[in-house]
User: Fold this.
Amino acid sequence: MNSREIAFELSHCFNEWGVSSCEKIHRIFRRQAVIAATNYFHSQGDLGGNLEELEQTSFPTNLNDAFRFYLQNENVASPLYGYIDHLDMNGRQPYYRKYNKDKRKYEYYLKQQFQGFEEQCDPFTRFEFQRLEKEELFFSTWMIEDDNVQSAFKGKVIETWLLCHALQHERCFNCKTQGSLRFNNYSNSPWQDMICSNKECSAMYKITTKENKIAMDKSFFLNRFICGSFQEFCKERNAENRKMFLVVLPRQGVCKEIPEMIQHLYYPVWIGEIQKGLPHVYHVTFNPNLDDLRFKTVVSITPGSETVWFDLPCPLHEVDVYGIAKTVFIKRFSQATFDFYSSEYFGDQGGDSEDDGGEKIEEKL
Ligand SMILES: [Zn+2]
Assistant:
């Protein structure tokens, strides 16, 4: 990977955002983005945590306790911002790229749902960013039941369940050592959800979920996975010559028919070695209040390295996700803070709608 690749990928991204090279303000921003991303790429390595300490860290062995532990340790980098999308399109980019074989170049097309809104697509005016307290961010991501929050929450449950299972039953994919996998709860090293504690190996694992098996297969086919912070990716990648793996599983279980048994659901867990990561522009990149430009990472894996790691069975018990989230929220902040945001978000209806939400999530599990 080199600076040219970074500039090339960013150019695609900006075209998908309708940030052209014609307008001066857009041109300047595009140039700044390439400089910022190239600086991240050359940044000094920092692993963010200490492997000896991790060896001592224990992780709960059942899903309920593990999910509680996960939320207790969840952290976010400040300052925090919420955003309003004036087009109400969940912060998505309006155009997509398509390769034209005859012309041998990429062309960009407006997505159908953006038809008629071309004028309002400029991301510099489309988004409004507002400061957000940590309490409010957690309340809105833990307690609200819209589709986005639900799928994010479902991802967290599955990820926790994967950790629960892998730490107890699976060998390190890289060195095959039994019992060497550890959960990493250092919030400043988001590319190491799991680490192998065998010092000769120290493989790092990033876990990501996809909506379903079809979406997962598509990502493998395109060899394109959009994951977390590019800045952090570069830091961790540049730190030491350790293998980085991407672990991918669907949020919807897959049905398996076993003769003479009732059909049962499981989650196929795929793995591939991370080959490279390139910067990806998302709505936060356009937040003028931040000191630095933020990007997500487009990860590609070493071709041919992808394989099934193991089949994750369905959890035996249902998880009361909203009940656990409410308890953890009150413990981390206070009952008064919980009541305050309940009335802000739910008004006179009261905040006790978590039971319904919990059931909804369990049904889909
Ligand atoms: Zn290992």
Notes: The mean pLDDT is 88.
